[in-house]
Amino acid sequence: MILAEKDLIRRADTKILLFILDGLGGLPHPDAGGKTELEAANTPNLDELAKKSVLGLIIPVAQGVSPGSGPGHMAIFGYDPLKHEVGRGVLESLGVGMELLESDVAARGNFCTLDSEGNIVDRRAGRPPDEEGRRVTEKLAEVIKEIDGVQIILKHVKGHRFVVVFRGEGLSGDVMETDPQQTGVPPLFPIPKNREAERAARVIWKFIQKAQEVLKDEPKLNGILLRGFSRMPYLQPFGDRYKMRGAAIAAYPMYRGVARVIGMDVLGNPETFEEEVELLEKHWDEYDFFFIHFKYTDEAGEDKDFWRKVREIERADSFVPRLMALKPDVFCVTGDHSTPALLGKHSWHPVPFMIYGPYAGPDDCKKFTEREAKHGYYGRIKAVDLMPLLLANAGRTAKYGA
Amino acid sequence: MILAEKDLIRRADTKILLFILDGLGGLPHPDAGGKTELEAANTPNLDELAKKSVLGLIIPVAQGVSPGSGPGHMAIFGYDPLKHEVGRGVLESLGVGMELLESDVAARGNFCTLDSEGNIVDRRAGRPPDEEGRRVTEKLAEVIKEIDGVQIILKHVKGHRFVVVFRGEGLSGDVMETDPQQTGVPPLFPIPKNREAERAARVIWKFIQKAQEVLKDEPKLNGILLRGFSRMPYLQPFGDRYKMRGAAIAAYPMYRGVARVIGMDVLGNPETFEEEVELLEKHWDEYDFFFIHFKYTDEAGEDKDFWRKVREIERADSFVPRLMALKPDVFCVTGDHSTPALLGKHSWHPVPFMIYGPYAGPDDCKKFTEREAKHGYYGRIKAVDLMPLLLANAGRTAKYGA
Fold first, then answer.
1. What integer is the mean pLDDT of A393-402?
2. Which helix (H) or strand (E) holds A152?
3. The whole model's pTM is what?
4. CA–CA separation, A361 and B349 (whole Å)
5. What average pLDDT does this structure show over B377-396?
6. Pairwise CB contact (< 8 Å): A379 & B64
7. Cβ B68–A399 below 8 Å, yes or no?
8. % chain A with pLDDT above 90
């Protein structure tokens, strides 16, 4: 991040609004006559904005790399995801509002169903309702408070999902996951990836065994699978780095977690995008930079549901006038990665972005689509180069050299 | 610079002419119906050339970085400005023809007006005429020749501006400027940025005090402000690096300085672009590579004068036939950065470039504008990658590997 390294960032009285549609990018689909999701969608507001903005394509991490949402967002926030790997356990724990110490090891957990021989029957324990998952998490938390001097902190997330934090000295996140990603076999042993991780692996193994003991009479939620073991990385906080007060608005834990890792404020507890927008409007005067997250495009893409993704894009489009009504000095719309419905998963394809602002540049794009963005003035950039462009557009940079 | 690192540069009997229009890139302007300066200008010669050339856009330093003219030019000459920072004092001193030793510390100076309490009344001493600035510089030079074993060398530049070189051992350029950038306060102390710079700071401070003593009876030019303290960086000389005899033709000190830093010959003392072109014609047979500089586009941009910038572009265009008449094997037109009249300052926006030559490439651009250059064959490149393209186009490179 050259602007930060060379001390070229300045404060200014401008506001930046970053609207991320998760998994935005798509691929031509035969059911839509070869159109992508963005092309098939009716998006009058985004297209109107495109005419006044400068477009381009971002390469999320590197050519050919399909990023997870963590690296995808880190990059957009200007933190190189190849240098700063943040574990899923950390992201999810922060996302559900847990405070993490530097020495903590955090992990994501699934309740699973084991048969009498200890083999996995269902990796998601029949997708229990929230109340059920919460009840069993609390049952575990009540009994297992400490192992070998390491404090065990549990928190339910949703359905069969929970997070667990191992708090103690001398722990490492270099432990392999215990989910074999298949049924008919027992959970895996948490193998330490190096000598330093032996203590953590032992504690984790004891925790898993104790948990199975505590849950042995549960009909469905009688085992656990852990993954994403990780510790908090040190990252220069967003406010220090960019000299902006930054706020994140996201309904999903993961994205709230990413924001917390980089030290952004995370606003409220929205459950829908409508609630996210309300939060944005409510807190508009309090921050310089807002990240607002729209998850539903990614979900539809992952479900291979082309037309649902189209509808979600159209729904996102319908909120654009409300976002623009706040009069951000710089408004940027993009995605953290592509999730083409044709593929049904995250992909490596460049993602369109557009920057609206008084000095965005000479452009002639008419719509906000992948094919139009190819011709955008900013061309293809790395996702980590988006923040410098947003800062420059917002008049928040100084000249480099004489 | 891979061509140099891999020893792939060869001599050849070809000539390269690089025409830099300072601050060339622009932004759509409401007064011109959304056209940029280049689009609004009537440039038959550049457009004719564009049809036979290959276009592209250069990113001067990095995305979102607005470069000074020093880094902007260094990059175009293939020297990474992020690795080689060259101070303004050095550039300006070299630019006015001073020879610098490696151990010298150079600075830019302004005469200012101080009131009886020593507070700054006018940071530019009422913009005195050249004669006045020269007279006072000479008065200083006559009295202050040495401080603590350090030789003081002064030279007048223009109006209220001069340069000072501190020649002695153990000096560092890591000293903060003394210009507070405001009136009503006294000049700042030249604070050393580290222990190594203490000696330099002390000498500089004594120099400032002596100067005020010498100038105390001057009505207007009775104080000095110093900035851009710097030492010569070591850079591989242009001739060694590129195996070409390179010459620079520029009227302004700064650009002459940049050329000297990288060891190019600086021709004559032109005062106008017309004189620059005459020098070029006169010395055409003596060099392999010429850099000719057109300053006036940047000045108009900085003054927010859209139509003057348009006219300056048109004036530059009118010289193109004379430049082409010299029959350069490779002719390149570009800018060191953008200076959109809309912004009134250097900006981060990519700058169009075009390369004319028999092997430039397949292209279909019809005009030399930002929007056309988007579609150019060379796409978007970093400014430091321009020289390799010029060398290759001039048949001055060898194949890499078998």
1. 93
2. strand A150-158
3. 0.90
4. 7
5. 97
6. no
7. yes
8. 96
Rounded CA-CA distance A252/B161 in Å is 59
Name B292's bridge partners.
Answer: B19, B249
Distance CA A370, CA A36 (A): 8
Structure token digits, residue A140? 């575990």
Residue B402: predicted pLDDT: 82
Mean of pLDDT values over B34-58: 97
* B26 close to B17: Cβ distance less than 8 angstroms: no
Task: Count CA atoms within 13 Å of residue B118 on its CB side.
Answer: 9
Contact B124, B160 (CB under 8 A): yes
Select from B39, B228, B346 the Cβ nearest to the Cβ of A399.
Answer: B346
Helix or strand (DSSP H, E) at B371: helix B370-373
pLDDT at A402 over 80: no
Position A85 pLDDT exceeds 90: no
Residue B268 main-chain phi, psi, to 5 deg: 55, -165
pLDDT of residue A260: 92
Give A322-357 pLDDT, tens digit per residue. 999 999 999 999 999 999 999 999 999 999 999 999
Chain B residue with the nearest C-alpha to that of A364? B371
* Distance of alpha carbon A376 from alpha carbon A379, whole angstroms: 5
- In chain B, the residue whose alpha carbon lies closest to the alpha carbon of A373 is B374
Domains within chain B, CATH numbers bracketed: 2-81+235-393 (3.40.720.10), 91-230 (3.30.70)
Q: Which helix (H) or strand (E) segment is A169 a member of?
A: none
Q: What residues have CB less than 8 Å from B287, skipping those under 6 apart?
A: B15, B244, B245, B246, B247, B265
3-state secondary structure of A63: coil
Which of A379, A387, A402 lies at the smallest CB-CB distance from B91? A402
On whether the CB atoms of residues A363 and A376 are closer than 8 A, the answer is yes
**According to the model, what pLDDT value does residue B189 have?**
96
| CA atoms of A250 and A97, how far apart (whole Å) | 13
How far apart CA B29 and CA A371 sit, in angstroms, is 26
Q: Which element (helix H / strand E) includes A149?
A: none
Q: Which residues of A touch B39 (CB under 8 A)?
A: 362
Q: How many CA atoms lie within 13 A of B373 on its CB side?
A: 32
**Cβ contact A150:A104 at 8 Å:** no
Taking an 8 Å Cβ-Cβ cutoff, which residues of chain A contact chain B? 2-3, 6, 8, 358-359, 361-364, 375-381, 385, 387-392, 397-402
Contact assignment for A2 to B65 by CB distance below 8 Å: yes
In the three-class reduction of DSSP (H, G, I as helix; E, B as strand; rest coil), residue B291 is classed as strand
Using one digit for the tens of pLDDT, what is the confidence trace for B268-287?
Answer: 999 999 999 999 999 999 99
Query: What count of other Cβ atoms lies within 10 Å of the Cβ of residue B242?
Result: 27
Helical spans, DSSP H, in B88-152:
88-95, 130-143
Stretch A206-213: mean pLDDT: 97
CB burial class (10 A; 0-12, 13-18, 19+) of residue B138?
A: middle
Of the partner residues B27, B28, B81, the one whose CB lies closest to the CB of residue A401: B81
pLDDT per residue as tens digits for the range A1-32: 899 999 999 999 999 999 999 999 999 999 99
Contact between B275 and B233 under an 8 Å Cβ cutoff? The reply is no
pLDDT of residue B254: 87
Neighbour-count burial for A101-112, b at 16+ CB within 10 Å, e otherwise: eeebbbbbbbbb
Which candidate in B349, B353, B364, B369 is best for mutational testing of the A interface (most A CBs within 10 A)?
B349
One-character DSSP codes across B337-358: SB--TTTTS-B---EEEEEEST
Q: According to the model, what pLDDT value does residue A31 have?
A: 96
Which region holds residue A33: left if phi is over 0, alpha if psi is between -120 and 50, else beta? left
Amino acid at B217: D
Among candidates B39, B66, B349 on the partner chain, residue whose Cβ is nearest the Cβ of A399: B66
The pLDDT tens digits for B312-343 are 999 999 999 999 999 999 999 999 999 999 99
